[in-house]
Amino acid sequence: MAHLTSRRGLLFGTAAVSAGALLAGCTSNESDSDDAAANDRPAADDKPGKKVTIGFAGPQADHGWLNAINENAKSRAGSYEDVTLEITEGSNDTAQQIGQIETLINKKVDVLVVLPADGKALTQVGLKAMRAGIPVVNLDRIFNSPQAYRCWIGGDNYGMGLNAGHYIGEQLKDKKNARVIELAGLDNLELTKQRTKGFDDALKNYPNIEKVARQAAEFTVESGQAKMAQLLQAQSKFDALWNHDDDQGVGALRAIEQSGRDDFLMVGGAGALSAFQAIKKDDGVLKATVLYPPTMAASAIDLARALGQGKGVSGLAEFEIPSSLTLYSAVVDKANVDQYMSTGFK
Known about the structure:
Layout: H1 7-11, H2 19-26, H3 34-39, E1 52-57, H4 64-78, E2 83-87, H5 94-106, E3 111-114, H6 123-131, E4 136-139, E5 151-154, H7 157-172, E6 178-184, H8 190-203, E7 209-216, H9 221-234, E8 240-243, H10 246-259, E9 265-270, H11 273-281, E10 286-291, H12 296-308, E11 324-326, E12 331-333, H13 337-340
Parallel strand pairs: 1-2, 1-3, 3-4, 4-5, 5-11, 6-7, 6-8, 8-9, 9-10
Antiparallel strand pairs: 10-12
């Protein structure tokens, strides 16, 4: 079928025909479900369809969660016969990542998935891709302009803090004059501020609980150990600790073990395999962790494939994939840790 409009026109909403009608007419392998047929709408599925080349520009894997992002993307792409993944060497250097993305644009990939080193700094290259007719799936760190991406998918930093606060609140709700402390991440990042705000807002529901200390670390094992040691020295008595990141939590747990203290509960953040294993073993202070799931990279590949094949999302009535998807920050404790063990990152 001849396209009635350009790819650029579709991306920016200037098509002369409805995107839904065009996608329905041009899809090579529509879903066989009665629901999809009834709506005359192609839905994403696992059956091989139109071949799609996805360009992936991710981060430098210098942190467990970031490495898991890259691995989830590669693994998901490899599970599809109709997907070819053009993956760049991960970089935290803005100029280098812009160059890598421009190379993918010049290769004329069908769709781009980008986790920017700096969302603000990479907004222009996102716009460049969109204007070239290449839809962009913006992963987690958001571009400054919604015109720079077709779909954003990422974690809920505020919700992460909120759920950590409610979990701790429920554990301590019957304890008088309960005291909690917070081991945050990098304070110059907006995500850290959002996590702290969510945590503080949740604790407002528990008037018996006071946050008595907060220390910012750097999302590394070494900083987690050093900053936790300072907190332990300064706070002779507290009932709960929320640590923003399971990687720095490895260091925090070392400091706790060295102190010999076990008179409080700890809640982590992100979903590292080591945290899940410690929660399951249940012989230390770590009792739960709040997810910031790196599986979002696999879902980004799913969305990119659907875009490349002109499909919607199975289970939704709309012809198009959503413009944004915020993942839920589930609390994982001993009761449900087995369910999440396979998603834990190293």
